[in-house]
C-alpha cells in the first residue's frame, strides 16, 4: 500500500486531523488516515513572510542613504530568512501520515515519516486491541494498538483531546469489527 508523499486531506472542511473512509476498495472494510494539524496553510505562510518582511524593514526606509541602513540591513534579512527557514522546516516535519486499514481478516497500520521512512504493523483483526495510557506514556493520553506480539503508537502527533476522541472511535470500531467476526 502506497501513501502519497504529498498527501493532503480532501478539500472539504474537516474538524479533526483524521478521516475515516468506508470501503475504499473491495478488500478493505474501513480506512483511517491521520495527519498532523496544520494551522498555517501555504497561502498564509506566504502572506506571513511578506508581512514580516515589510514590517521588519519599515524602520529602514528612514535610514536609506546612510551607513546605518547598510549596517542594519543584513541583520534584518537574516532574521526574515531564519523565520522562513524555521516555518519551512516545520512544514516538512509535519508531513507524517498514518493509515490504519481494517481489512476482512487483518488490521494494518502504515506510518510514513517526514523523511520518507515507512513503518508497518499488521495483526489478525480479532486479536487487535487499542489501549490508552493516560499517564504512563511519553505524552498524556498516549494511544497504542497491540497484537501480533507488538504494541505500536497511533496518532501521537494529535492533541490530547483529539487522542481521547480517536481512542473512543477506535475502541468502538474494533469492538464492532470483532462482533461481526463472531
Can you walk through the features of this model?
This protein has a five-stranded antiparallel β-sheet with strand order 1-2-3-4-5, with no helix packed on it. Strands 6-7-8 form a three-stranded antiparallel β-sheet. It is elongated and about 80 Å long. It has helices at about 40-55, 65-95, 160-180, and strands spanning about 20, 30-35, 95-105, 105-110, 120-125, 130-135, 140-145, 150-155. It folds into two domains: about 20-40 and about 95-180, PH-domain like; about 40-95. The protein has three helices and eight strands. By secondary structure, the chain is of the alpha+beta class. A hairpin with a 5-residue loop joins β4 and β5 (about 120-125).
Terminal Cα separation, in Å? 28 Å
Tell me, briefly, the overall form: elongated
Order of helices and strands: EEHHEEEEEEH
Largest sheet: 5 strands, antiparallel
Mean pLDDT: 85
Low-confidence stretches: 4-14
DSSP helix count?
3
Going by CATH, the architecture of the largest domain would be Roll
| Helix/sheet category | alpha+beta
How much β-strand is present in the residues? 25-35%
Under CATH, the topology of the largest domain is which?
A: PH-domain like
Main sheet: strand order: 1-2-3-4-5
What's the CATH first level of the largest domain?
Mainly Beta
User: What's the gyration radius in Å?
Assistant: 22 Å
The overall number of domains is 2
Overall helicity: 25-40%
Amino acid at each position: 500500500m502506497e501513501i502519497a508523499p504529498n498527501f493532503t486531506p480532501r478539500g472539504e472542511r474537516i474538524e479533526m486531523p483524521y478521516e475515516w473512509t468506508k470501503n475504499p476498495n473491495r478488500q478493505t472494510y474501513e480506512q483511517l488516515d491521520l495527519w498532523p494539524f496544520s494551522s498555517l496553510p501555504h497561502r498564509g505562510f506566504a502572506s506571513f513572510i511578506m508581512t514580516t518582511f515589510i514590517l521588519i524593514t519599515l524602520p529602514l526606509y528612514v535610514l536609506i542613504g546612510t551607513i546605518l541602513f547598510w549596517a542594519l540591513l543584513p541583520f534584518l534579512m537574516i532574521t526574515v530568512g531564519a523565520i522562513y527557514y524555521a516555518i519551512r522546516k516545520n512544514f516538512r516535519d509535519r508531513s507524517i501520515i498514518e493509515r490504519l486499514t481494517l481489512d476482512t481478516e487483518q488490521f494494518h497500520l502504515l506510518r510514513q515519516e517526514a523523511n520518507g521512512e515507512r513503518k508497518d504493523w499488521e495483526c489478525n483483526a480479532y486479536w487487535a486491541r487499542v489501549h490508552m495510557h493516560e499517564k504512563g506514556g511519553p505524552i498524556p493520553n498516549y494511544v497504542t494498538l497491540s497484537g501480533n506480539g507488538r504494541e505500536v503508537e497511533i496518532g501521537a502527533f494529535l492533541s490530547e483531546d483529539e487522542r481521547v476522541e480517536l481512542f473512543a472511535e477506535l475502541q468502538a470500531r474494533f469492538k464492532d469489527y470483532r462482533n461481526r467476526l463472531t
